From TrEMBL:
GO biological process, one term: C4-dicarboxylate transport
Family: Belongs to the TRAP transporter small permease family.
Keyword Transcription regulation: no
Membrane topology: Multi-pass membrane protein
Protein name, entry field: Tripartite ATP-independent periplasmic transporters DctQ component domain-containing protein
Length: 157
């Protein structure tokens, strides 16, 4: 049951990231073409591309955590046993889990503060940009649970 939930969340986040990246490429290309061909820059283009980029970067981090694709220093991995490496990976996941919890519960003050600030050209509150923090924090939590279950199974073997 947990595998199915984690897998569904991972696929959903992956699809959202694909859409966000495609939108960002289209928006930036459209704004650049409009600027040089039509001599007019849409006022919403830069902010919308920024929203897509921030949401993509933070959400794709959750996919990297669950699939163990994030950047890490592996120099010490060559000198330790598989069991020790797995324990270190579990400790790493515990820290990411704590960071995800902090992101979820610590971001509400920021969202409240930025809800009074309006993004120029779009008329949306800046909290739209920062709303990804609790969402990606929740995704981090789910990703660490998913990856942690895999590592615990590996540790038991």
């Amino acid at each position: 049951m947990v595998d199915k939930i984690c897998s569904t969340v991972r696929r959903g986040i992956y699809m959202v990231c694909c859409v966000l990246l495609a939108c960002q490429v289209l928006i930036v290309s459209g704004v650049a073409a409009s600027r040089y061909i039509l001599k007019h820059t849409p006022p919403w283009g830069e902010n919308l591309a920024l929203i897509c980029m921030v949401w993509f970067c933070l959400l794709s981090s959750a996919v990297a955590i669950s699939e163990d694709l994030h950047l890490k220093v592996t120099l010490i991995d060559n000198f330790i046993s598989d069991r020790t490496r797995t324990i270190m990976d579990l400790l790493d996941l515990l820290l990411v889990f704590i960071f995800g919890v902090v992101m979820v519960f610590g971001s509400y003050g920021l969202l409240e503060l930025t809800s009074r600030n309006i993004m120029s050209g779009m008329g949306l509150p800046s909290s739209v940009l920062y709303a990804v923090i609790p969402v990606s924090g929740l995704a981090f939590i789910i990703a660490t649970i998913d990856r942690g279950r895999t590592l615990l199974c590996h540790l038991k073997q």
